[in-house]
Every structure is written in C-alpha cells, then in structure tokens.
C-alpha cells in the first residue's frame, strides 16, 4: 500500500509542477508577464521530457517482462497523438503576428517607394519649371 501511495503521490506532484507557472504568473494576456510565463512553461515541459527520456523509458526497457517493440510503439504512438493534437489546435497567435509584421514591412517598403517617387516628381517638376523659366527669359 505504501509503495502505491508514494508512487501515485510522486506522479501527481510531478504532473502538477507543470501547472505552477500559471499560479506564479497569473495573467498571460499582459505583454509584461508573457515572456516569464513562456519561460516557466518551457522549463516545466523540459523537466517533464527529461524525466521521461532519462528515467521512465530506460526503466521500462530494463523491465524483464517488457517487450521492446511494444514500448517503442507506444512511445511513437504518444508522440504522434501529441503531434496530431498540435495540428488540430494550432497556436495562430504567432502566425498572425508574423503576418502582421510582414504586412507592416511591406507597408514600410511601399511607403519608401512612394516617397521616392514623390521626390522624383517634385525634382522633375522643379526642373520643368526651371526650363520653362529659362525659355521665357530667352524670349
């Protein structure tokens, strides 16, 4: 009984550590706190992945009754399921900000081209006025 309770408690504690950044940085919407939340969530995910790849998988492969093929297939299945979940529920925020950035950059380039064209028109107009004035003075 003690072994199961300790294992269950330990697994629950490790799983809940991933939720800790939500309580530390309460509001994700503010731009000031967002980098901290992303950093803390990255650390939590990294520690859980390290636990899986450095502790749980080697222990599973070392178990005498375990089939390496089954363990490998279940590992690949889990990775594939998480990949599908990521594809089904994409994080569009980054894509939209990149698109907005591209549009802003394009707008800046278009504005620069328009300003250059406007300058050329002004310079040509000034030259045109100078030529007309010179011709009038010669008459």
TrEMBL record:
<dbReference type="InterPro" id="IPR003689">
    <property type="entry name" value="ZIP"/>
</dbReference>
<dbReference type="GO" id="GO:0005385">
    <property type="term" value="F:zinc ion transmembrane transporter activity"/>
</dbReference>
<protein>
    <submittedName>
        <fullName>Uncharacterized protein</fullName>
    </submittedName>
</protein>
<feature type="transmembrane region" description="Helical">
    <location>
        <begin position="6"/>
        <end position="25"/>
    </location>
</feature>
<keyword id="KW-0812">Transmembrane</keyword>
<dbReference type="Pfam" id="PF02535">
    <property type="entry name" value="Zip"/>
</dbReference>
<dbReference type="GO" id="GO:0006882">
    <property type="term" value="P:intracellular zinc ion homeostasis"/>
</dbReference>
<keyword id="KW-0472">Membrane</keyword>
<dbReference type="GO" id="GO:0016020">
    <property type="term" value="C:membrane"/>
</dbReference>
<keyword id="KW-1133">Transmembrane helix</keyword>
């Amino acid at each position: 009984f003690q072994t199961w309770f300790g294992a269950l408690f330990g697994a629950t504690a490790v799983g809940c550590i991933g939720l800790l950044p939500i309580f530390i940085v309460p509001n994700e919407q503010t731009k000031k706190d967002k980098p901290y939340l992303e950093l803390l969530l990255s650390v939590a995910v990294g520690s859980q992945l390290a636990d899986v790849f450095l502790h749980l998988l080697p222990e599973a492969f070392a178990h005498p009754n375990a089939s390496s093929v089954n363990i490998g297939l279940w590992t690949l299945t889990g990775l594939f399921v998480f990949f599908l979940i990521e594809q089904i529920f994409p994080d569009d925020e980054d894509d939209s900000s990149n698109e907005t950035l591209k549009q802003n950059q394009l707008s800046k380039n278009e504005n620069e081209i328009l300003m250059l064209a406007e300058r050329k028109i002004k310079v040509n107009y000034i030259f045109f006025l100078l030529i007309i004035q010179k011709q009038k003075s010669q008459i």
